Backbone:
């Protein structure tokens, strides 16, 4: 049986890629120039990045809403 | 036809349970990483080990890029695009291997010039955190190879590819852990130990 092929939608994938790139570069430059303890700010950067990965790449919504969230 | 749809319903039902089990494992595993993260700040509140920050950025970019590609692989198999799925899974594997080489064979020897796992807190923290994480990356690369190899044999379809989803979730989890480990080891702390 021939499997039907649909056009993959990579729009969210690309948007998250841009967000992760901006946050990672921002975090790097802040870390390099900082002379004081910036652990709190860095933690916020980490939480923001983790949020997008867990929501859009790991699709945590599927755990609660099943395949409709696919 | 009804047999096919019945078995598909059964497959979906099993996937719901498998997904729950996978997330429970991820949740429990995250406590170990959280413990290491907390230990790092408890033992070195305002200090960090002497490390190459640019190398840290490069390995981080490689791991983030691998996560992006793994997501593309999962989207591709969901759309029935086997070619794109196989290509993206293979690239994810390659980037994961580059990350491992970057940490274990480049960063570790460089860090060893300043810190040691046998002496002092900084070395113990650095090698434990990166070593434990590297083992997870290695496991992920092996898992990716299995999924890629099964994919080559045509074992996954648009509707039946939970193994790909599981592999992707595990890989992204490893990425999420590094999202917190990277600044904790390379960027936070004004007193540099070993410098």
Residues:
């Amino acid at each position: 049986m021939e499997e039907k092929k649909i056009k993959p939608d990579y729009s969210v994938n690309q948007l998250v890629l841009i967000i992760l790139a901006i946050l990672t570069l921002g975090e790097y430059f802040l870390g390099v120039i900082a002379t004081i303890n910036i652990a709190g700010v860095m933690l916020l950067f980490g939480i923001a990045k983790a949020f997008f990965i867990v929501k859009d790449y790991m699709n945590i919504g599927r755990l609660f809403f099943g395949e409709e969230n696919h | 036809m009804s047999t096919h749809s019945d078995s598909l319903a059964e497959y979906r039902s099993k996937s719901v349970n498998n997904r729950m089990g996978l997330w429970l494992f991820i949740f429990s595993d995250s406590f170990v990483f959280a413990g290491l993260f907390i230990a790092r700040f408890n033992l070195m509140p305002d200090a960090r080990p002497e490390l190459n920050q640019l190398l840290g950025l490069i390995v981080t970019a490689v791991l983030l890029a691998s996560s992006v590609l793994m997501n593309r692989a999962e989207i591709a198999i969901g759309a029935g695009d086997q070619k794109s799925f196989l290509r993206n899974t293979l690239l994810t594997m390659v980037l994961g291997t580059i990350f491992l080489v970057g940490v274990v064979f480049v960063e570790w020897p460089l860090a060893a010039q300043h810190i040691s796992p046998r002496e002092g807190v900084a070395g113990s923290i650095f090698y434990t955190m990166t070593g434990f994480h590297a083992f997870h990356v290695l496991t992920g690369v092996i898992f990716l190879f299995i999924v890629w190899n099964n994919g080559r044999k045509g074992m996954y379809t648009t509707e039946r590819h939970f193994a790909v989803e599981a592999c992707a979730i595990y890989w992204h989890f490893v990425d999420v852990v590094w999202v917190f480990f990277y600044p904790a080891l390379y960027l936070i702390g004004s007193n540099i130990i070993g410098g």
User: Anything to note?
Assistant: Strands of chain B lie at 47-49, 191-193. Residues 2-43 of chain B form the longest helix (42 residues). DSSP finds five helices and two strands in chain B.
